Amino acid sequence: MSHLFARLNWFRIICWLILAAILVITVTPLWIMLKTALMPSSEVFNYSTSWWPNNPTLVNFERVLGLLSTEESLKAGGSGAKVNFSLAMLNSIIFTGIIVIIQTASAAAAAYAFARLRFPGRSVLFGLFVASMMIPGVVTFIPNFILIRDLGWLNTMMGMVAPFCLMQGFSVFFLRQFFLALPKELEEAAYIEGASHFYIFYRIAIPLSITPLITIATLIGINMWNEFLWPYLVAKDEAHQVLTVALQGFKSQTPQGQPDWTGLMAATAISVLPTIGLLLIFGRNVVESIQFSGSK
User: Fold this and answer.
1) Cα(59)–Cα(38) distance, integer angstroms
2) CB neighbours of 258 closer than 8 A, spacing ≥ 6?
3) Which of 195, 214, 216, 233 has its CA 20 to 30 A from that of 256?
4) Could you give the CA distance from residue 58 to residue 242 in angstroms, rounded to a whole number?
């Protein structure tokens, strides 16, 4: 028994070491980003191998937030590149919020139909939804772009959100697992009282599935907040640029001959705060929901 316990202890130690290594690999790029954002522009290359900013400063955050004039920004080491950070942030919030609300609602309705309703071709249709997860998103870019162009939705918020608004295969599959686990007795009692399918879905199934709905909304929100290629193709007008596209434009501007790395890292550090906040608030729900879904 002592040998068994010793082997288990060593196994746990190895597992913790692996987790620690993964954590270091994950956090290191974020720390380098924050360190660079806190450094004066003149010290970026001189102290690039240092793990701590030599003279920490918040001037880079002030520059990208538009709190300094152009002259003050150049004096602080900026390149002269500009980005309408507040507008890009607002566009990202609107873009992400619309997609999260519509996609979560449509996926929940489809998942409930596949889990509880009986109709011809249900299994085949659900199989097609699951199979859609194996189709790379880039395959649909050209057809979607042609459709959005023909509809006259280029450089509009409608054109950016349209391809993402309907339900996705993973969302439907994920939520269906939870609706299958709901007690049928509740639905049968509601049927006896004359409740419709919509009433049962809205007043019984949804309140009992708040955790998985929050989970899928969180995953969709993080994914859409980081979306770059489609908004970049559809809306190049600054008035409709999301944050990821605006940061790419900021990086590409080189009025002084080289990118403004400290400003770019400061803007990037601010842009990741919403996703970190979502994970901190709803991370436990995500883990618990995925564990439950996997056990089914």
Assistant:
1) 8
2) 79
3) 233
4) 24
- Please count the residues of the chain: 296
Per-residue CA distances from 273 to 154, 193, 270, 276 (Å): 29, 48, 5, 5
Cα gap 90→49, rounded to integer Å: 35
pTM: 0.82
Q: Which residue has the tokens 């309705």?
A: 109
* Contacts by 29-32, CB closer than 8 A, 24 or more apart: 30/272
Q: What is the pLDDT along the chain (296 residues), one digit of tens a residue?
A: 555 555 657 778 888 889 899 988 988 888 888 888 888 877 777 777 778 877 788 888 888 887 776 676 666 666 566 778 888 889 999 999 999 999 999 999 989 988 888 888 888 888 888 888 888 878 888 888 999 999 989 889 999 998 888 777 888 888 888 888 888 888 888 888 787 888 888 888 888 888 889 889 988 999 999 999 899 989 878 888 899 888 887 777 765 557 778 888 888 888 888 888 887 887 776 666 665 554 45
Among candidate residues 212, 209, 225, the one with its CA nearest the CA of residue 286 = 212
SS3 237: coil
Locate 169 and state its tokens.
Answer: 């295969």
CB 262 within 8 A of CB 60: yes
